[in-house]
Amino acid sequence: MATIAYRRRYHIHEEIGATSINESYMISDPESGCGLAAVEEKTGIGTKIGKAFLDKTLLPVSLEMVSSEGSFILEMYQPVSIVKPTFTVKSSEGRILCVLKSNSCFLKPFIEVFDERNQVIGAISGNWHFNEFEFKDVGGKDIAKIKHCYGGFLREVFTTADDYDVEMLAETPDSSLAMVTLAATIAIDVWFHE
């Protein structure tokens, strides 16, 4: 996790899969282009079939982040949800890093971030275009900015693949907040851009 944990900037690229309906992302250093981690969806055949007919919030979602060296970093799990989707994010040791709960309304995306004791540690709010998000702690201090990148007309119209730029704003680098922010970016994609 050392190669990914203490960076100030990240780029997340969602892969376009012609033969796979699983979500797949590459996390890289935007300056060097060097790959830092990959995120892959782990689903069974029933979920794969369900994706063809149902909204994603009506299906369970399970994702795993693996470093470029091949070591397991974290997992994200969303159970079936009709009203307010929730992702539980666990570290490689099985400890809950955070729980992300969507409390969005029609025009304003909003995600509450909870710790393992179910205490609010921050919130992520977005603009009505759903393309710029701010992650702030409970005191209103900036943690990170997440920006949805425009992928060009053809990519936007014919695919659900999206790219994101993430900038960590906290004065002191915090590896757990970086992991929470990266997981939140994946949740933003699943909830708002699929």
Characterise this structure.
The protein is α+β, with helices and mostly antiparallel strands. 18% of the residues lie in helices and 40% in strands. The protein has helices at residues 2-5, 45-51, 153-158, 175-192, and strands at residues 9-14, 24-28, 35-41, 61-67, 72-78, 86-91, 96-102, 110-114, 120-126, 132-137, 142-149, 163-168. It has a twelve-stranded antiparallel β-barrel. The longest helix has 18 residues, at 175-192. The protein is globular and about 40 Å long. The two termini are 28 Å apart.
Quick tags:
alpha+beta; 12 strands; 194 residues; twelve-stranded antiparallel β-barrel
Number of helices: 4
Task: Give the N-to-C terminal Cα separation.
Answer: 28 Å
Mean pLDDT: 86
Strand content: 35-45%
- The strand count comes to 12
